Recover the amino acids of this structure.
């Protein structure tokens, strides 16, 4: 059975009650754009395409102003980004310099005083001459074992458990 | 399209003082200043073209003042953000701005289900066409946009019963008072409400159906009681004079 609200082919055919209700709803929706109605929405779309109204000058000025605020914000954020980057770089540089200076100022006898193993050449680990070829892995292993032992000793020394 | 009716508009557009070399040069300098970060220049460019963009491009395609206003705001945001990508090509700022607006309209049409005359595919075709036209076409695009919108409406009206078309024309397009239109059609206002309701329903059906079919609401049309298809209306490419070959290209990278 067909929906009684659906219009018939004859434009002037008698209307059903449902059709009258839908017609009243359309009339009310055309008068009040806040009412949701598909027919009224299409009517407004037709009207907008046929004779589009100008945007109110005040509304347009507000849109332009908002865009310009974004423009200012975008430029400011770009500037802030550049400044932030510059400040970060300067701080990093200062920290690096400080680190170098502090490491230079460390008392030379501090490590020796608590008996820590110091950085030193690996030459004592290899009293014999190297063979012309081969043996690299074995030499690396020897260095790793020796320095691993140094590290453990140093940790124990610092913890006071040696 | 009626050439006699359109020709004065086209000739008027060609002769517009805003199309003069001086105006172009002034606009070029504004664009340069805007790209250098001059806020006032950005504001002048938007103020010069925004109202026409709203009226000729956004509102007809989106079919709602609120949607068109939102779209214009988005267009401005994109313009501000991408101003540095614009390259001056001696055809003014309008073609680029129009392409930005078409893309924004396309996004909105894809995102929303609303009864409008334009399908996303129509606008996509317009965006594509905007890459391949001559400078003179670009200068005419505002007039052509407005003309095309009217042609689209006329074509839709031609597909429904003449009495329905008349009801829509008088009440919706010409915005005549309900009582006057009822008198014109020889019915009571209450009966006119029913006729208009039927007319809008017929219009929705033809917009939801492929173009070229039977006239809706006429004896040869679909059976009463047929539901309109789901989804948005299908609109044909009604651009006068073969729009695809005449649209304005953006004068720089498409945003």
């Amino acid at each position: 059975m067909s929906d009684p609200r659906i219009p018939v082919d004859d434009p002037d055919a008698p209307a059903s009650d449902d059709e009258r209700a839908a017609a009243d709803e359309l009339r009310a929706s055309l008068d009040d754009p806040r009412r949701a109605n598909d027919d009224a929405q299409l009517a407004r779309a037709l009207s907008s395409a046929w004779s589009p109204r100008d945007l109110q000058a005040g509304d347009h000025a507000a849109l332009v102003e908002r865009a310009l605020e974004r423009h200012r914000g975008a430029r400011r954020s770009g500037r802030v980004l550049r400044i932030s980057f510059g400040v970060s770089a300067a701080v990093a540089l200062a920290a690096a310099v400080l680190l170098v200076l502090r490491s230079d100022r460390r008392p030379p006898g501090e490590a020796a005083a608590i008996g820590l193993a110091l950085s030193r050449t690996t030459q004592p680990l290899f009293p014999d001459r190297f063979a012309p070829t081969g043996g690299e892995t074995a030499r690396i292993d020897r260095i790793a074992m020796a320095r691993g032992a140094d590290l453990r000793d140093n940790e124990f020394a610092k913890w006071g458990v040696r | 399209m009626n050439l006699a009716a359109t020709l004065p508009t086209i000739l008027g557009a060609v002769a517009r003082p805003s199309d003069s070399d001086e105006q172009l040069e002034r606009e070029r300098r504004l664009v340069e200043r805007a790209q250098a970060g001059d806020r006032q220049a950005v504001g002048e460019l938007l103020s010069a073209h925004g109202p026409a963009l709203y009226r000729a491009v956004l509102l007809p395609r989106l079919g709602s003042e609120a949607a068109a206003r939102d779209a214009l705001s988005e267009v401005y945001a994109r313009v501000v953000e991408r101003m540095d990508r614009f390259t001056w090509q001696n055809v003014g700022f309008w073609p680029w701005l129009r392409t930005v607006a078409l893309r924004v309209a396309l996004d909105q049409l894809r995102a929303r289900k609303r009864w409008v005359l334009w399908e996303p595919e129509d606008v996509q075709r317009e965006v594509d066409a905007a890459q391949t036209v001559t400078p003179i076409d670009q200068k005419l695009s505002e007039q052509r946009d407005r003309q095309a919108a009217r042609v689209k409406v006329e074509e839709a009206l031609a597909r429904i019963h003449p009495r329905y078309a008349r009801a829509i024309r008088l009440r919706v397009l010409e915005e005549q008072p309900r009582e006057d239109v009822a008198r014109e059609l020889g019915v009571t206002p209450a009966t006119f409400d029913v006729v208009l309701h039927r007319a809008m329903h017929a219009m929705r059906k033809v917009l939801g159906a492929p173009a070229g079919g039977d006239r809706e609401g006429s004896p040869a049309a679909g059976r009463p009681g047929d539901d309109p298809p789901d989804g948005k209306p299908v609109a044909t490419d009604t651009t006068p004079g073969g729009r695809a070959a005449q649209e304005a290209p953006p004068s720089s990278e498409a945003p």
